[in-house]
Protein 1
Amino acid sequence: MVGGGQLARMTHEAGIPLGIRFKLLSDTPQESAAQVVGDVVIGDYRDLETLRAFAQGCDVITFDHEHVPTEHLRALEADGIPVRPGPDALVHAQDKGVMRAKLDEIGVPCPRHRIVRDVVDVVAFAAEGVPEGDEGDGFPVVLKTVRGGYDGKGVWVVRSAADAADPFRAGVPVLAEEKVDFVRELAANVVRSPHGQAVAYPVVESQQVDGVCDTVIAPAPGIAEELTLQATELALRIAKELGVVGHLAVELFETRDGRILVNELAMRPHNSGHWTQDGAITSQFANHVRAVLDLPLGDPRPRAKWTVMANVLGGDFPDMYSAYLHCMARDPQLKIHMYGKDVKPGRKVGHVNTYGDDLDDVLERARHAAGYLRGTITE
């Protein structure tokens, strides 16, 4: 696996019961996965020769992020090394412009969008969204760098032409999108193997705070059955059309008029699927491992009526472990997953999972534990 973050850490854990030997390419020995994996290579994933040396002896290469240069992945494939997902699929998660163009081609509903070159382009794009007879200017709009953004980074909500200059200072292409009037954010998680077997997890609600995932509720409360089917079928179709192998997360907007629009794609285990570790028969991590090795996929059905995942973000208290006694004693069913990271304010350092039959109770338990571990709740 290329990338030493928490996704690699949890994917490695899922492979242990299957007897899978796991090799890791990590930026530093301190990365989350590098602390627990036995076979670790320290190196720069942006260097082709480092990747080639790392790949020697591997049956398959997969990733915990989308940042490996596409041309390097093509070179590995040319060397005869299986790369899953392959570069032809992964580029749609690496480049938002490529993703939008492909989704348009295959008829997937998306927010109105266009690549823009400068502030003048942004103003013109905003004006295109003004209804006839309306005197507005079309703002706000959303601007995104086409590559490299995550967790709210590389994303700007622009409310006027004066605000639109910052994204262009990075010197990379910028995608303009309409600011969608949505009720909530959803995620459809599916897994697909090389021989075409695919499984789908329940559609979940993903709640964001300051552009970072805070809470995931599985399944999405109150979602109409037809919307669930539409989201699931959409995710499975995207996985097939793009040739995805492994886990695919399709982030969605549920609009006020009852539609769903695709916001983002991720071709790796995803924060919106962390609940599956304790809430599904087969976790997203275990199924990603099975898929990239072309093994039969596991059952994705939930174990409980409700499962809630709450991210643990770093706060002002660096020693979170002292909070374990309280959290474990208060809720013996609580599942805590920590990533071994240094605590920094706002940084994802772990998550908790709770489950049960009463959604209000399950939500309260998850949020209390995450807040107590962070230090924002003290009793």
Protein 2
Amino acid sequence: MINHHPSDALLTRFIEADLTISLSVIVSSHVEMCPACQSKVAKLTQQAASSYFDDLDDLHQLDNNDTLSDDVLHMMGQITSAEQDTPLNLPKNVTEIEIEGKRLSLPHALKSIALKDWQGLGKISRARLNIEDDERRMSLLSIAKNGSVPCHTHKGFEITLLLQGSFEDEMGTYHAGDFIWLNNDHTHQPISKEGCVCLTVSNDALKFTQGMSQMLNPIGKLIY
């Protein structure tokens, strides 16, 4: 059962196309997995469409003496007549992956994004998604059976969407479909008894808080 969801405000920005690409991808991936958020998005979309058509009605009711400026008309003409100058060179679609002998079908929002090589250390492995979004980084993160991420907090924010398996930390237990947004108010140590695969988006380095892992903090900006 999915217990953790994007906020209503975030879903509203999603349907209004007001999110950066990485945030849009991870929210879209959650919505694909979550019937409750699918229903919310449908309602929000209907509300937005109704508001849009109400605005169009107001525009049609302009007095005969009211006209759109030449600049606005020129801009609208440019938008409607714009052509793609060069064809898009999209990467090869990746529809599913195999990790620890388990097949995982990826959400549709990920299937046109190239996946870089996997890199691992112990029971943790990560593959970057080839996406440009300023300081935000998007990755697939795998924690093998009985693996854990060292105790840490976050210098910025980190969003985790659990795609397969489960993990637990000091704040609870999470299952496939759960959407978790953490920041520097949170300190935790994720542990996965059965193994898990997550989609993550972060905009700054982790800050390790215990043991030998703290030695990685000086180079954290290079590895987040």
Protein 3
Amino acid sequence: MKTDIGSLDSTGEEKDINLLSIPGLTIKLQHLNGVLQLEASGHLRAVCAPFLNKINVPLKDEKPALVYEDKVIASTWLPPIPSKVFNRLLFAETRIALGKYVPETVSFEVTRECKCNCEHCVVSGGEGDMDVASIKRAIDEALDMGTVIITFTEGDPLLRKEIFELIDYVDKDRAIVNMYTPGTDMTPESARKLKEAGLHNLLVSIYSTDPKQHDSVRRLDGAFEMATAAIKMGLDAGLLVTMCTHVSSKNINELPEMYEFASQLGVHEFSLWESIPKKPGDPVLSDDDRKVILDMYHRINSTLGGPRMFSNTYFEGEMLGCMAGQRWMHVCVEGSIKPCPYIPFGFGNIEDEPLKTIWSRIRKYPHFKGERHSCLMQEPEFLQLMDHIPENAALPYNFADLK
């Protein structure tokens, strides 16, 4: 799909941009008939071809979230192209292609505080929150490992007074910063401060176009009005804004209506995440459900106008595979480390040992090896491990203690 992005030399002609040069590999960003494409050369070219193709296909066939004069936001979940952070992503994917896995995304729970009381909340147990110094140290360690996406998440990051300081702390030449919020405490002033701190993408979840249904999920009266107001404030502040929802067999028929609502709000992307079971027997999406999502994904992203659609059914299903323990690591509010937010097992604590040590421990388990095109928490064999967690045990449960 053509993107009218200008990268011009002094003669007014489009020029190639050199993104990455390491021994054996050079990656350039080319303009081919108005379409951005990545081209590799060098003896490592064949190794990198699969992941370059995974990026090139969406660039060619899908509408971007936003186009500036000098860069394109292919998805609000990804760094701008071109940018120093995108170059780091290419380097990380090169390392992964060579078998050296990098936690490209690291998400941080920064507070337990939240005015909502959602049943699906995955905030960790225990007591207390990590102090700012510990979070900053973990951010530094993640960046040194190659992380390119830092996400601040539940409870509600806006209820932690240092959230603007933490966003500002992240080196924007090394990572983009995303933030989830239910929107209950957004104000025009806080939206402006998020923009000034360098937030890349504001994520607000809407669970239904019916305010009563959304409020019932949040278990908070007025939550729908607050969330939609937060989206509008974010847009007014000049932020990238994504409207998110969790999709299950119960609400899959509502997705077209949800997309239309996202269009009316004017968000940059409509983001679908599959609902995750917590124990054996919990419902999961069927193959037919996933086909509905993928058909909608391809139809919307090949049609001009309206927000782009993101779906982890495509991104982690067809494109990259499950990222838990392979491209993703999650830092719990008290410092425990999980392979992703949804897996209820811990593999160490950032307060006790370096992040790199814990990542290496996760990578040793066979569950986090090999390309898997479905969520690990949707695989019956892995879900059986939930039965071995002692009753009333605090989560995340130490994976090494499973009997």
